[in-house]
Structure formats: C-alpha cells, structure tokens
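Entry 14. Two folds queued back to back today. First construct below, sequence then structure tokens.
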Amino acid sequence: MSAEPLRGKSVARFIIVALLAALLMAACGPSDSSANDSGKQQVSGTRGQGAPEAASSGKGVAQETTAGNSASGEEAELARAEVEEREITNMIPADGKKPDAARPLPKNPPDGIEVYPATTNRSIEGSIHYERRPPTNGDHAPLWQNCGFYEKPIEERHAVHSLDHGVVWITYRPDLPKQQVEALRPYGRENYVIVSPYPGQDAPVIATSWRVQLELNGADDPRLRRFVDEFRISEIAPLSGNRCVGGVGRPAA
C-alpha cells in the first residue's frame, strides 16, 4: 500500500476527532472557574470570620442567632462549649471535700440564652473590670461569694468566683416589685444559687451561669426555673462542683 492513502486516512481521522471534541465542549458549556472560586471564598470567608467577630464583641455566636429567633444556633453554640486549656481546673473545693460531679449542658436550652467565649479564671487581688453587666466569666477575687439570698448588691468579683464553682447567679433590678422579689427569695435557699439586686441591668431579672446568660421578663418567667435546673454545676464552669460556702457575704435569712 502506498504512503499517500495512509496520509489521507490519518487526516480524516484527525478531522473526525477534532469535530467530536468540539461537540463535546459545546455540550458541557464554557468553563467558569472564577465563579466557582468566588463561591468557595464566600463559604470559607463566612466560617473564618464568625469566630473572631464573636470574640471581639465579647458575645458568642448564639447571641447573634438569638436575634433571628433561631434556637438551633443557640444549641449549636452551647454544644461546642467546653473548658479551655487556659482555664484553671485544679483548685481545692470551698470546704476541702471532693467536688460535686459536674453536669452536662442541656441539649434543649431555654430560648434566649447567650453564650460567651471562654477567657481566664485567675484569682486576682484588687478591683476587676468586666465588659458585661452582670459579668458571666473571667478573672475574679480569691474568695467566692457564699450562696444565698442578698437584699443588697454584692461585689461582682466575688460573684464571678462563685460562677466558676458552678453557681447560678440570679440578679434583679432594685425597682423590681416586692412581690416578685419575694418570689425569688426561695431560690436563694437552693444549692449553688445566689440571688441579689443589681443596679443598672436592662432586664427585670437575669440568670447567669459561667459563660451563659439569660434575660428574663420577671420572677415568674418559666425559663428561670429551667435555667437554674439545667445550668447549675455546669460542666463548662472550670471549677464546677467546688461549692460556695466559707467565702464572703452573709445572706439574708
């Protein structure tokens, strides 16, 4: 066979292959790598910016989602909460006995909670500035506040130490009606609970545990009972179970 027919067949095959490739590219559509890359950047950017933004504002992601009435956001943030390495966890309990067992966080917390980032929980002498009022966590006084009901405001730095022990701190506005104040009094007789007035707070009643806070409409808000039961001796309080006796303060009878 001559070389001329072979060349003709090779050319014909090349043309057929080129036509098939062109048809295939037309069917798949043009490649838009820039659109795909921008989509990936948008997703990764959302995840990457979320944590720093929450930390700089001093509020957890749960607070941001609370504004949108998204319970799933609160639950997700709470589920991720844990004691961090920079938080001290080996301090002797208030009465020198074995600490009470810490309790797991609720899977279905009351609506409206705000979860805040972990900081440090060092014992520091002197005054301490807190960004939030009432404070939820942070460094505190060497001595904790004894649990109970108080008719006058207590010092934040002692109360925060009690929060570190797993206490729930219930605060109320000084102008709260007397009937509601009396409704809060029994909580002060429970273990791991402090009740005290707090001048200047926004909500009538606020319940606070270590890193978690809930603003309430009043003493009769049903979420208060749930908060106390579900966040007392919380597992994210670094010294949870260390009790709150033998500290400072003399609760009202």
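Second construct, same run, same settings:
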Amino acid sequence: MGLWARISRVFRASTGAALDKIENPELVLQQTIRDMRDRVPELNNSVAQVMATERLLLKQKENLSTQVVDLDSKIKASVKMGRDDIATAYIGQLQQAQMDLERTSAQADHAQLASKQALKARDNYVLNMKKRSAEAMQLISAAKQAKLQEQLAQTMDTFNIGDDSSTFAEMREKIDRRVAAAEAKLQLGSSSVDSQMQDIEREAMDIQLQDKLLEYKSQMGMLGAGSSPASKQIAANSDVQEAEVLNSSILDEVNEKSHSN
C-alpha cells in the first residue's frame, strides 16, 4: 500500500471517528423526516404534470376524432355535389387527421399508463414516508431513553456511598454533641443557686399560705376551742406536709411536660 493511500485511510478513519462523536442520532432522524416530507410537494408537482399531459392528449384525441368525422361528412357531401376536386382535398386532410389521431391515441394511452404509475409511486412514497416517520419517532424515543440512562449511569458512577456514610456519621456526632451540651446546660441551670433560692422562696410562700389557712380556720372555729397549741402545730404541720406533697406532684407534672416538649 502506498504512502498516499495510507494517509488517506488514516484521514478518513479520523474524520469518521470525529463525526461519530458529534453526530446526534435524534437530530439526524428529525432532519431525515423533514427531507422526506419536503419531497412530497415536488412529487405532487411531477404527478400533476404527467396528469396534465394525459388530459391534453385525451383532449387532442377527442378533437381529432371530431375532425375525422367532420371531414368524412364533407367528403361525402362533395362527392354528391360532383365536386371531386373538393372531395380530393378533403380526403387529403382526412388522411392526415387519421394519422394524427392514431399517433395521439398512442401517446394518450402511454400518458394514461404513466399517470397511473406516477400516482402509484407517489402513494407508495407517502406510505413509506409515514412508516419511516413512525420508525424514526420510535428511534428518537429510544435515543432519549438511552441518553437518560447514560446520564443516570454517570450519576451512579460519581455517587460514592463511603463518602456519604462518613458525612452522615460526622453530622450525627455533631448533633449528639449539641444535644449533650444542651442537656448539661439545662442540668446546670436547674442546680444553680438561683434555682435553689426559687425553691426556698416557693417553700416560704407555701408556709405563709398554710399559716393564713390556719388563721382562717381558727377564726371560723374549725380547729376547736380546746385545741392546744401543740395540736394546732401538729395540724399545721400535717397541712404543710399535704401542701408539700401536692406541690411536689404539680412540679413533677410540669417537669414531665417540659421534657416531653
């Protein structure tokens, strides 16, 4: 193989590979469909010309047939009138008209056959175009699906489950640290001096309320006239204990609701 042939082969191979890369099957099929549809008006024009030729020849055939009949009548009339010279002239015209009629009849028959073939070819082309268009649309749909699958495959190739797992673990650790810090702050706040002082103030308020309650009961005579201060103190202590138990249960319910929220 010569040097030029080898260079030509390499050039054609490189060109073909480059065209394969940039060639979009979807666009090529769409352009092919458009080209096929653009040829339909051209075919219709060609068929119309063939049909026009057929109609023209048929009209000429009809006119020549009428002319032959008319010349035959004139010849007969000339013979009856004894005008052989005129009859002879008409006979010459009749012979020419008959020759033209035979030739035109043959051309008309050929034109009719050509017109039928042209119509059949046009119909076959339209039918084939519709079939090819349907196949092209299916191929275009398949090409779109293949492109989507390729994109999905590329996405799956770039998807690294290990990296995502480490990310989830890192975020979980950060969240756990934040939760632990928040719980520690909450516990520190509940055990602070301010919180203890609030508890003492709340206890003092409860004692004051119980003292006020005993005062009302004493004024209303509900504690009894013979009740000793010791018994009053015991009753007061009992009421205080009941109040503490009630307040403790209320605080437990409030704490449970706050933790649940």
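Quick look at the second one. Residues 151 and 210 are 79 Å apart (CA to CA). The radius of gyration is 58 Å.
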